[in-house]
Design a protein that fits this description.
The chain is α/β, with parallel strands linked by helices. The chain is about 45% helix and about 15% strand. The chain folds into 2 domains: about 50 residues; about 160 residues, no CATH class. It has 11 helices and 9 strands. Strands 1-8-7-2-5-6 form a 6-stranded parallel beta sheet. The protein is globular.
């Protein structure tokens, strides 16, 4: 059994994302959106807004991940599917690390955020290293169960091969799918983002993949919202 761990949590989060901070973060998100819609790069807009409101690094990341520029938002929503009907063979394609880590973070009681495009995103970063923790088993069970409830006929789950322990996570996903009787197959591949960017029926909250893929399904938000005691924050700007 993996050791207990709290994925995606930093000691300063309780202060950075306390209730007293949320109005400031919502205002900062509105300013970030304003600048993004006028051609500022994410880095430039985050620097200007972060300095103005004296945001911490974690708060800046939360603002950037929450906001979608209006042109990107319109494109993402136009490609979003309500169900699996019309997908070839009823198959969905899952961004494995993106989906599992978001659920691990939510199960850990770490902050996750409602985003403008309807997804839920976390502040955890995958930098080529990953380890299975105690929350991983439940996260994988929720993922496979969610695919079943989605009505998918089958699912391909893609994991970045260069990331440490991707093989162990692949085995866990495949074993869980067999136990639950759902036809999902996890595989380790190179260039997951590039692969998903050319496919329909993608399950992810990765903004870069959403901008490139043919179509996508927002399965993660419902799964995260259903987790008891989830620390789900809404700093989306009013529109």
């Amino acid at each position: 059994m993996a050791a207990a761990s709290r994925r995606g949590f930093f000691p300063g989060d309780e202060k950075d994302f306390a209730a007293a901070q949320l109005d400031k973060l919502k205002t900062a998100a509105a300013d970030f959106l304003y600048l993004s819609d006028r051609g500022y790069s994410p880095q430039g807009a985050a620097s200007l807004v972060g300095d103005r409101y004296q945001l911490t690094a974690r708060q800046r990341t939360a603002v950037v991940r929450t906001v979608s520029p209006q042109d990107a938002l319109a494109s993402r929503l136009a490609k979003q599917l309500c169900g699996v009907s019309g997908l070839p063979g009823g198959e969905v394609h899952v961004d494995g690390f993106n989906a599992v880590i978001a659920l691990e973070v939510a199960l850990s009681g770490s902050p996750v955020f409602f985003c403008m495009d309807g997804t839920v995103r976390d502040l955890a970063g995958l930098r080529g290293t990953y380890r299975i923790i105690d929350k991983t088993y439940e996260a994988v069970r929720l993922l496979v169960g969610g695919l079943w409830e989605l009505g998918a006929a089958k699912a391909a789950v893609y994991l970045d091969a260069p990331v440490s322990n991707s093989g162990r996570l692949k085995t866990l996903i495949n074993e869980t799918a067999r136990t639950l009787g759902f036809p999902a197959e996890a595989q380790t591949v190179g260039g997951v983002d590039r692969l998903l960017g050319a496919l329909p029926g993608v399950v992810t909250a990765d903004s870069a993949v959403l901008d490139r893929c043919i179509s996508w399904l927002n399965m993660g938000t419902g799964l995260v919202k259903a987790i008891p005691g989830v620390w789900l924050l809404d700093i989306r700007p009013d529109r």
